Amino acid sequence: MTRLLACIDDSRYTQSVLDHAAWAALQLRAGVELLHVLERHPERAGATDFSGSIGVDASKTLLAELAALDERRGKLAMAQGRQLLDAATAHLVEQGLDAGSRLRHGELVDVLDAEPGDRALLVLGKRGVHADFAKLHLGSRLERVLRTSTQPILVASRAFQPIRRVLVAFDGSDSARKVVELVARSPLTSGLECHVVMAATDDAENRSRIAWAEAVLRENHVGCQTHVLPGDASKVLPAYVESHDIHLLAMGAHGHSRMRELLLGSTTITLIRRCLLPVLVVR
Asked: Which domains does the chain have, with CATH numbers?
C-alpha cells in the first residue's frame, strides 16, 4: 500500500497535521506512518566543567547529578513521545485508516534523509513548538525540510477545513509545471475545483505559458479557471486566496532564479507564511 509520512510534535499544530494527513490518505487511498523525532534543543545547556572554581570532587558530584538528570529527561521525553504517537495512531485508526508510528532520535532533516524515499507525501505543520506565532515565523525545521526534501510536502495550516478548491501558483518555471502535472494527474487533488493564477504582466508570452497549464489540466479532465494578474506574487496570490475562498495552495519550491538549485525561493517562503491555508510544495 502507498504510504505517506506525517511528522508530529507536541505543538498546537499536531491535530491539524493529523487531520490533513487523514484527508490526504483518503484521497490517495494510502496508509499513514507517523513520525516523532526527539531532538536535543539548544536551550538545554550541556554539562559544564566547574572543576576550576568549585574543586574536583564537587565537580565530579555535580557532573554525575547533571548526567542523571539528563538521563531522566531523556526517558521522560521518550515516554511522552510514545504516548503522543499512540494517541495519534489511535485517532487515525478510528477513522478507518491504516496507521503506524515510529519514534526516532536526532535532527528531523537527518532522520527524514534516512527514511525510505518512496513515500507519496510528507505532511508537516507550518510551525513547531518553538516558532514565533505573533510574527508568523515558519518553524526552522520546516524551512530545512523544504530545502532538502525530494517528495511533495503538504504544509498543514493551524486548523483543518474541508478542501474543495485548489489554487496553483504558476510562473512558467519547471517547478511550477511539475505542480500543474501533479494537480492534473494525482488523486490527491482529484475532485477539487482548480484555479491557476500567474502574477505577471498580461502579455502574449505569459498568456501562452498559462495556456499550456490549462491544456494539461483539461487533457486530464480537470476543469480550471486561469488568470494572469499584474503585481507581485506575494501580494496577488494571498488576495486571490481570500477573495475566492481557496482551501489549498499548490506551488513549486523554486521559481525563475539563478540560485534556485541552492536556495528555496523567497516567494515560496513568503506565501507559506502569509497564506493561512495548507500549502502543497512540489520540487
From this structure: 1-158 (3.40.50.620), 161-282 (3.40.50.620)
SS3 of residue 198 by DSSP: strand
The residue assigned the cell 538521563 is 71
CA 68 to chain CA centroid, Å, is 36
Rounded Cα gap, residues 265 and 254, in angstroms:
5
Model pTM?
A: 0.84
CA–CA distances in Å: residue 120 to residues 4, 21, 186: 5, 11, 10
Do residues 35 and 152 make contact, with C-beta atoms less than 8 angstroms apart? no
pLDDT digits (tens, 9 = 90+) for 132-190: 444 445 667 788 888 888 889 999 999 999 999 999 999 999 989 999 999 999 999 99
| Tens of pLDDT, residues 198-219 | 999 999 999 999 999 999 999 9
Cα–Cα dist 235/240, whole Å: 9
Grid look-up 528555496 returns 264
